[in-house]
Amino acid sequence: MNRTFKYLLTILLFSQAFQIQAQQDQLYITYPFMPLSVNPAYAGSREVISISGIFRKRPLFTSLSGLQVASTTQQYFSFDMPIAQDKMAIGFQAYNAEQALGNASGAILGNLGLYGNFAYRIALPNDGKLAIGVQYGVTQVPAFFSTTGGGIGSTGFNSSLGGGIYYNNDDAYAGVSMLNINATDSYNRPIFFTAGYVFTIDDEFKIKTGALVRKQSTNAGGKTDFDLNATGWIKDKYGIGIWYQNTGSDVSSKASILGSFQIQVKKAQIGYSYDFSGSGTTTGAGSSEGFHQFMLRYEIDAGNGKSSVFRYF
C-alpha cells in the first residue's frame, strides 16, 4: 500500500466518522457543563441570566500507519434567562467544531450549529418548577475542505426541532427530551432521560449526582446508552467530579471517564475537565490523547434577586 493511498483511506474513514458524529450534533457532548444542550426546557431553571462558554481541544494523535490525524477544536456558547416574572424563559446556543487531519494535505472538516430555546415554567409546591420547552435551529452538514486545495464535497444546513419537559427543585431534577424531531433519516433523533439529586453530607460538603440515558432512533441503530456522574462540592465553592460517559464524548464514541474541577468565584464559575478515554482507545490509532475542556460561566441577576443563590444544576 503506497503512501498516497494510505492518506486517502485515512481521510475517507475519518470523514465518514466525523460526519456521523456531527449529525448526532456536537452540542450534546457538552451537557456536563451545559445541560441546556440536551433539554430545551432547562432554559431559565437557574433563575438568572446565565452565560456560558466552553472550549474543547484534542491534539493530533498518531495512527498505526504513522499518520497524524484528527486534531479537534470545538467552541460552544450558551445563554438563557427567565422572563415574564420567571413564568417563561428564552435561550440561545451555538457551536463551531473543526477536525484537522494533520499531515494529510492540511484537510479540515467543519461543522456548526445555531439554536434558539423557549420554555414555559409552572410553579409547584416545595419550591419546584415544571418547564415545557422547545428548541429550533440549524445544523450544518459538514464540509470537507483543504487549506491548500479548496473544498471537496458539499455543505448545507438542516433545520432542527426539539422539545422537552424538565422538573427541578433545590435538591433534585428530572427531565425527558427529544431532539431533531423533524430530521431526515440521515440524522439521529435521540431521546434523553436525565435525573439527579444532591446529597447533603454536612453544612460544608454536598454531593451532586446525576444520570443520563440516551435512546437513539431506529435509523441510528436504536442503541441505548447511559452516563453517570458525581461531583463533591466543598463549601459551595470547589467542585471535584467524576463522569462515566457512554454517549459519545469523543469521535471514537467509546465509553470514557472524565475528571472535572470547578471553582465558584462570586458570580462566575470556572471549570476544567479531561477525557481519559483518549489514551489508546480510538479505533485504529496507535496513540492518542483525550479532550481538554475549559468552561466559564457568568451569571447576572435577572431582577428577581436570585443571583446570590448557589445552584448545583
Description:
- This protein is mainly beta.
- It has a single domain, classed as Porin (Beta Barrel).
- Helix content is 7%, strand content 55%.
- The protein has one helix and 19 strands.
- It has one helix at residues 3-23; strands at 49-58, 61-63, 68-69, 71-83, 88-100, 107-124, 128-141, 143-146, 150-152, 156-168, 172-178, 191-202, 205-215, 224-234, 238-245, 256-265, 268-275, 285-287, 292-300.
- The strands form two sheets. It has a 14-stranded antiparallel beta barrel with strand order 1-4-5-6-7-10-11-12-13-14-15-16-17-19. Strands 3-2-18 form a three-stranded antiparallel beta sheet, with no helix packed on it.
- Strand 2 (61-63) and strand 3 form a beta hairpin.
- Mean pLDDT is 81; it is low at 4-24 and 278-287.
| Overall CATH architecture | Beta Barrel
Say how many strands there are: 19
**What overall geometry do the principal axes of the alpha carbons give?**
globular
Low-confidence segments:
4-24, 278-287
Under the CATH scheme, which class? Answer: Mainly Beta
- Count of DSSP helices? 1
Compute the separation of the termini in Å. 52 Å
Strand residues, percent: over 45%
Structural class: mainly beta
Largest sheet entry: 14 strands, antiparallel, barrel
CATH topology: Porin
Mean pLDDT: 81
Q: Mind telling me the C-alpha Rg?
A: 20 Å
Order of strands side by side in the largest beta sheet? 1-4-5-6-7-10-11-12-13-14-15-16-17-19
CATH superfamily: monomeric porin ompg
Order of helices and strands: HEEEEEEEEEEEEEEEEEEE
**Count of separate structural domains:** 1
Question: What percent of the residues sit in helical stretches (DSSP H or I)?
Answer: under 10%
